[in-house]
């Protein structure tokens, strides 16, 4: 037995239902009926009480919760800020290959991930070299 249902007389809906079932098992339906008559209302009240307690606890927890995190400082996010440039770079990489594109850009191949994701801006002079190479590239 938990603290909520002390041994002996406890008139909560759980203990009342258990006592009612025991009376039915022992062939005392009239007593069981009298005992369990108020059970539906008692269960309803208990559910309302539990709901109200849960609501109250939820509101207290929400009030105690930490405020939302502030926005990261400008430049500190990993969101693609250079989407258009990244799309152009992907075309160059498709045509030239990653290593050649990185070489023309003047960066290491390992630096290409951020450039292709659009989170890092490519050097302007490197972009000019890439565009020149693309313009001079004759397709067969
Ligand atoms: Zn009880």
Would you give an account of this structure?
- The protein is mostly helical and 140 residues long.
- The chain contains seven helices and no strands.
- The model has no long low-confidence stretch (mean pLDDT 86).
- Zinc ion binds next to helix 1.
CATH architecture of the largest domain: Orthogonal Bundle
Computed Rg: 36 Å
| Proportion in helices | 55-70%
Total discrete domains: 2
What is the fold-level CATH name, i.e. the topology of the largest domain?
434 Repressor (Amino-terminal Domain)
Q: Describe the biggest sheet?
A: none
| Proportion of residues in extended strands | under 5%
Structural class designation: mainly alpha
Shape: rod-shaped
Mean pLDDT over all positions: 86
Give every kind of bound small molecule, once each: zinc ion
Succession of helices and strands: HHHHHHH
In terms of topology, how is this protein built?
Elements: H1 13-25, H2 29-36, H3 39-64, H4 83-96, H5 98-105, H6 112-117, H7 124-136
Helix pairs in contact: 1-2, 1-3, 4-5, 4-7
The structure holds zinc ion.
Which keywords apply here?
single chain; 434 Repressor (Amino-terminal Domain); rod-shaped; binds zinc ion
What is shown here, in short?
With 140 residues, the protein is an all-alpha fold. The protein has two domains: 13-64; 83-136, 434 Repressor (Amino-terminal Domain).
């Amino acid at each position: 037995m938990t603290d909520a249902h002390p041994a002996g007389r406890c008139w909560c809906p759980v203990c009342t239902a258990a006592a009612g079932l025991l009376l039915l098992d022992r062939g005392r339906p009239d007593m069981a009926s009298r005992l369990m008559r108020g059970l539906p209302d008692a269960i309803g009240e208990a559910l309302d009480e539990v709901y109200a307690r849960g609501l109250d606890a939820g509101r207290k927890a929400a009030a105690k919760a930490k405020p939302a995190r502030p926005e990261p400082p400008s430049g500190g996010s990993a969101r693609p800020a250079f989407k258009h440039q990244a799309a152009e770079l992907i075309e160059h990489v498709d045509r030239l290959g990653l290593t050649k594109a990185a070489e023309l850009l003047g960066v290491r191949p390992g630096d290409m991930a951020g450039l292709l994701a659009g989170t890092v801006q490519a050097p302007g002079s490197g972009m000019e070299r890439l565009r020149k190479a693309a313009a001079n590239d004759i397709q067969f």
